[in-house]
Amino acid sequence: MRSLLGAAALWAAAIFPAAADCYAAAGAEYSIDPALLRAIGYVESRNSPGIVANHPNGATDLCEMQINDQHLPKLASYGISRDLLLKNRCTCIRVGAWILAHEIAVVGSTWRAVGRYHTGPAGTESRQRAYASKVRIAYEQRAARVEVTRPLAIPVQRTPQAESTR
Length: 166
Known about the structure:
single chain, mainly alpha, 8 helices
């Protein structure tokens, strides 16, 4: 069964090469503009799946949305592993949306929430602003190309889900 799920995850990643449907689905699930999620993915990894970034402090960021490994224990309780984040773009993008949704629930639908996506709540305000500025530029470039909707507040009780393998 486990190898069937692994094969299904790889198949899902192969059929979403641009991940456009993954961004739209995650955006709809968490009431976040898909263009904003795409912009975060662009700033984090240039929308490249399977990326691993190791930091000097020992932390690791994973997949297209650069999910910090500090989230892995919580994600494990939802059946989401490091391996799944790296192999399944849609799961990676949905987890990124889940993290941003949490930050929006804490500080509101603001660029500060986007900054906290990158730094976490303990990050300095200047680092949060710098990151949010990069995302805002990428977002505005994408918004000029596609019709977008405004990001909305998200209920915190939602949990991340692995992409369906059906």
